[in-house]
Amino acid sequence: MKALRVVGVLSLIVVAVALACAKGPTGKAPNFALKDPAGKVIELEKLKGKVVVVNFWATWCGPCRREIPGFIEMYEQYKGKGLEIVGISLDRGGWEVVKPYIEKSKITYPIVIGDGALVDKYGGISAIPTTFVVDKKGNIAKQHVGYMTKEDLEKLVKDLL
Fold it and tell me: Residue 153 in contact with residue 70, Cβ under 8 Å?
């Protein structure tokens, strides 16, 4: 009987550890310093004091394209209240593909281009879009994999602002 209890407790610990590991990175958000299409460097470290939404996406990704209008609305609504959004494109075609898409979609928040090394720093990304919410102290507060509505995003960031 006692052995069954020990096995049960150990099983719960294993499940808890597995779930914690599956969440992706926690703690301090990995820094990046990447240029936007105008050549301005966007550095995560310099955004401390703001809630930062870091969104990994690509122009060819349908769910990514669908969530962008809501991200634009959130940015316009909350940028004066301490919200920053940084879109990190994972398009292999680089600015040649991304810049026309930014213009066509009228994206108002900063867009930069990431690479495999940055993806690795964020714990590897299994799907896009993947969004990290970084609190005012620079720590990853939340992570969301997949499409997100404006309302979903608002729920993730509002309490942190």
Answer: yes
At 21 the pLDDT is: 38
> pLDDT tens digit string along 77-118?
999 999 999 999 999 999 999 999 999 999 999 999 999 999
- CATH assignment of 28-160, among 1.10.10.60, 3.30.230.10, 3.40.30.10, 2.60.40.10: 3.40.30.10
Chain centroid to Cα 98, Å, comes to 18
- Per-residue pLDDT tens digits for 27-44: 999 999 999 999 999 999
Instruction: Give the closest residue to 71 by CA, choosing from 58, 83, 59, 89.
Output: 83
DSSP state letters, 89-142? E--TTTHHHHHHHHHHHT--S-EEE--HHHHHHTT--SSSSEEEEE-TTSEEEE
Q: Which helix (H) or strand (E) holds 33?
A: strand 33-35
